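ingest -> validate -> predict -> emit
validate: passed (alphabet ok, no gaps, 334 aa)
predict: started
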Amino acid sequence: MTDHVTLSMGAGGKQTAELITNVFKKNLTNRFFTADDAAVLPQPDGQIAMSTDGFIVSPAFFPGGNVGELSVCGTVNDLTCMGAKPLYLTCSFVLEEGYPISSLEKIVSSMAETATKCGVSIVAGDTKVAGKGQVDGCFITTAGVGEVVDGVSTSGAFARPGDAVIVTGDVGRHGCAILLSRAEYGIEADVASDCAPLWNPMSEVFGKVPEVHVVRDATRGGVGTVLYEIAHESSVGIKLSREKVPVQSEVQGVCDMLGLDPLYLACEGRMVIIAPAQKADEIISVLKSHDDTAGACVIGEVTDEKPDHVIVETVIGTETYLPEPGNELLPRIC
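emit:
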């Protein structure tokens, strides 16, 4: 097999088979992984959740992760938000002619490692090769199926006045890491993506506090966008304390220089949880016992005042509206 992706590797013949065997099967083999046209899988006992997502991040390798790890985390976390244990993933690759096989293998290896971490099986996939310049290196689409935990029912429409607003860690790191890795602004800062699959800590939360109302993955658009989505869906107001929002000092410094708000920078390992206030301490205790959510904290509350709006209490004690997101959010991460 050559050192770079060739058009013949997407033609379905010998070269395609070699690519599948030497890269995908080598890294992704598990008891459900199939060479047939579709995987045949055990049927879950309860309700299932299903999600799909595309990943075209540039650059494909960034501090704290790569597009392969991201593709598993993104779909696993989407299922997790619905209270669903991730069971199976499929993955579809669109590769640019000439893409280094060594880079592809690193990406697929990261996918396998991340899938193992959260107990999900990658069961089937597809590979296409596009001509030079038609795609930017490597695009991945993943689809996932999960089994909803008994007694858990989450939705953006379930937030209630008096609920606590929790984040699972510091915000804005992924968007900042991508921005810096593009070297467009000449800024140097030690910022790594927060990319992580969060089923393990959240499964424990669901087990101890099944009455969680809302869980949202704060990816593109960040925590601010998620909060506005919830406010609209539930017809409630949300009040935040700016002082309580955790932001890494390096991220805050970059935001100050560029006029960005970390609440609107993407996260890839952070969730917004809305739950009854009397359960907040128990949820925080669970989350702090896991490395990927050790920075969890309460940042605000749901109110019946000013429905459809997010209000921020500033560090000097005044209140202001968090501007509602619109147009292009920067930096664009996909």
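The first strand starts at residue 48 and ends at 55.
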